[in-house]
Every structure is written in structure tokens, then in C-alpha cells.
Amino acid sequence: MIGLPHDSPWGGVQHCEKLIEGVYLVSTASHGGVMVRKNAADFLSSDARKVAFGDGNYLCFEEDCDEAVVIRELLDKKLWVLPDRIADKAVYEENINRSIQNWNPEYWAARNKNRAAQTSCGEETELEMRDVRKDIIFRDSDYKEKFRIKDGESIKITVAYDGEELLRKCRYLDEAHLNVGSTCYHVDEFMEKMSRVGNTYEPIPGQLPELDVVIAEPCKPPCDAVIPMNRLSLHELVGGEALIELKERAAYVRGKDGNGVVGVCGISGGELTSLHPYEAQTIRRQLTEKPPATATAKPVALSERLEAGKVKAAAHIPVWDDHTLAQRQAEWR
């Protein structure tokens, strides 16, 4: 875990409060704001990112005008709740909204437009999902961009010595690294290897956008899956109406009827996207250690719970004969 920031664009940090991992409310001798680590900023919408300014590894939101944008995003996505020290939470949220309307009206308009689209009953609006997958860049032997594809798409490699064509799925790891099939490469390393053996590689046209997700079902180990990139596929995944719970780096998709099936995908710019390969490893481990709760367990009535408690309590009450009781009384004296 990376430590709390000690420096800020407003000076040395005197007080720092972690809102969620990678998001810090800081104050200095004269000023402050919210600092969001760039590698933890996927929850921010593209409109929120426009409000921030960069400072090293952080996106920074100044306290007077811009900090409310981050607070609004965290509350909207249920990643953070207002602490108990805020007595009147409704008034606090009103002040947040008023600050955004005054200082960032363009963000406020975009937020309201997006929320209206999400709650629209129109079928097309409900099922559409914006493609925000990262671009994977491939280079030629001159180290210039040759082509780019979206995270999760495939390329065709033509083997030099026999002309065999290999289809390999590619995953974005970071700006300089990717997976081709199951092998991790630096982008230049892949190009150099292909050039050295004489292989050629090219994108495959017409690929439909897909989501890489992790699926967990009761009594089954979690597994990877690929589904079409639309909300209808999420509904089909969980066998009914899908409820989406946004967390810090992933979105948990559950069925409203509580059938126990859980799908986990990624978040980028506030939108659902493919789960990052490294994040998928973490999610699989977490779901293996703590399987998703199901709603199929038989509810226990309060009277039954009380009766069970009495039985357990009775089992722990020692039973003494007259001789043992006399010994205990002597000891107590």
C-alpha cells in the first residue's frame, strides 16, 4: 500500500484524511484540496477529470472550487459515505451541489444529463454502454505507431517459416506493456521479437466490443468469461434485472432476485469496462476466500434464534453434585 502524500501543490501537507484508497483530503498551512492518485482514478468520470489539474502522480482538486466534484462522484457511486461528524448530511450535500453549480456548471450539466440517461426507461438508452477500453499501441521496426486496437481485441500473427496464421487475444497492462495470448511483453519487445523471426502481425477488422469479466456462482470456483459489451448481457449474466454496485476499482453485478450469481467487471472514467488482468487475479482470490452471499438461505425466525440461544447457553452451564458444590462454596469463602 502506498503511503499518504506528504507534499501537495499547495505546500507541505499538515493534515491528510484518506477518503478511499488513493483519494486523500489534504490541508496545508494556507490551503488544500483533494488529491487522487492517477492509478486509482478510474472511478472518476471523464467530465470530472477535466476539472482536475495534474501534479506528479496525482490529479488535484482545489478546495474552494473543485473539491466538491470528487465528493459528488464518490457519493454518486456509493464508494464513500459522509462521516458521522457531519450532523446534517442533507444540508452538506446541498452545499456540495451549490458549489458545483457555481464553480463548475459544465460538469453539473454533464452529470445531470448522464444520470437522466441512466434512469431513462427507453430500451436503447438502458442497453447502450460506452466503449472506454484502453488502446493498445503496436509499433513497427522504426519504433513508430503501426496500428492500435482496443483492450481485449485480437491480432493475427503470420508465422514466417510456414505461413501459419495465429490469432492472439491482447490485454492492456499499462501504457508500455501488454499480454499477447498468455505472454507479457513490453510493446517494443514484442515488435523486436516479431522482426527478429520475420513474423508479421496485423489487426483483425470488425471485432465487436466485449467485456472481460469474472463470474462467481455459489459452490463453484470463480472463472473468467467474455460477454458482449451491453447492459442486456449483464442482465442475462445474472438471470434477471442487474443491480450494479460500484467499488473502488471494479463493479459488482448482482441479480435483483438474489440468485447468487455475481459478475465483476472494471471501471474506467466512471463507465463499465473490461476487468484489468491483474485486478481479475485479485478478484478471483477474494471471491475464492469469501464466496458471494446468496439470498436462498432459509430465514430464521426470532423465536427460533432465541430458543437456539437458550440451548447453547444451557450446554455451557456446569452441573455439580453436592460434594463438588460444597468444595466450591468452601473455596469462595
Question: Brief overview, please?
Answer:
By secondary structure, the protein is of the alpha+beta class. Helices cover 32% and strands 30% of the residues. The protein is globular and about 85 Å long.
Write down the secondary-structure element order. Answer: EEEEEHEEHHHHEEEEEEHEEEHEEEEHHH
**What is the total number of structural domains?**
4
Question: DSSP strand (E) fraction?
Answer: 25-35%
Would you tell me the structural class of the helices and strands?
alpha+beta
Mean pLDDT: 84
What does this structure look like?
The chain has 333 residues and is an alpha+beta fold. The chain folds into four domains: 7-119, no CATH class; 135-203, no CATH class; 210-289, no CATH class; 302-332, no CATH class. The protein is 32% helix and 30% strand. The chain is built from ten helices and 20 strands. It has helices spanning 46-51, 67-76, 89-103, 105-119, 123-127, 187-197, 231-238, 277-289, 302-315, 322-332, and strands spanning 7-8, 11-12, 15-20, 23-27, 32-37, 53-55, 58-62, 135-139, 145-150, 154-158, 165-174, 177-180, 183-186, 200-203, 210-216, 223-228, 242-246, 250-255, 262-268, 271-273. Strands 15, 16, 17, 18, 19 and 20 form a six-stranded antiparallel β-sheet that branches. Strand 10 and strand 11 (165-174) form a beta hairpin. The longest helix is centred in the N-terminal third of the chain and has 15 residues, at 89-103. It is globular, with a radius of gyration of 27 Å. The protein starts with 6 loop residues before the first strand and ends with a helix.
